[in-house]
Amino acid sequence: MQIIRWHGQAPPQERELCRKMQSQGLQPYSWSNAPGDTYSPHTHSYEKVLYCVRGSIRFILPDQLDEAGLALYVDLEPGDCMLLPAGVRHSAQVSSMGVTCLEAARQANKIVAQPAQPSVSA
Description:
The chain is mainly beta. It has one domain (2-110): Jelly Rolls (Sandwich). The protein has one helix and nine strands, in the order βαββββββββ. It has one helix at residues 14-23, and strands at residues 2-4, 29-33, 38-42, 47-65, 71-76, 81-84, 90-107, 110-112, 120-121. Strands 1, 2, 3, 4, 5, 6, 7, 8 and 9 form a nine-stranded antiparallel beta sheet that branches. A hairpin with a 2-residue loop joins strand 7 and strand 8. The longest helix has 10 residues, at 14-23. It starts with a strand and ends with a strand. Residues 34-92 form the Cupin type-2 domain. This is Cupin type-2 domain-containing protein.
């Protein structure tokens, strides 16, 4: 997993991030979740390329432990990017602000059309 933090003064606009992803040959799509929504642990058969546009979201990696033996997690804020390799089990918790993300799938150097999303629970 790779996290690329946004260090600009103001977070980039959604259309700017969309153009950036398209220039990399990706086919991004936007999705949003309400405050407190969660995703159960799941995997994908493709690399997930995800930018947080608004709000924030926490991704939990239950199979990767930190020094204290707890599940590793990463919080994404506006402008942050996560590259999650295929097959990495993860869950997610949306913050109290809700979240909007841009996501694209990359599979073995091929672009994948918008993949099916796991179900969300409130």
